[in-house]
Amino acid sequence: MTRLFEQAIGIARRLPPERQDEIARLVLMLASDDDQDCANTTDGTLPFASSSLPLDGTDDETAARHLSI
Fold this sequence. Notes:
With 69 residues, the protein is mostly helical. The chain is 49% helix and 0% strand.
C-alpha cells in the first residue's frame, strides 16, 4: 500500500460511517477488474465529488490539501 493511500485511509477513518461507505464503494469500483462496475452508480456521479478537491499535485500536496478539509 502506498503512503498516499495509507494517508487517505487514515483520513477516512475519522469520517462518519456513511462517508466511509461512499469511499469504500469507490475504492472497490476502481479496484475491480470489471470496468462495468465503475458505471454502476445511481446517477453516474460520485456522491461526494467537489470542485474544491483538485486531483493534481504531488502526493504531499494532495495529502496536505485533504488534511485541511
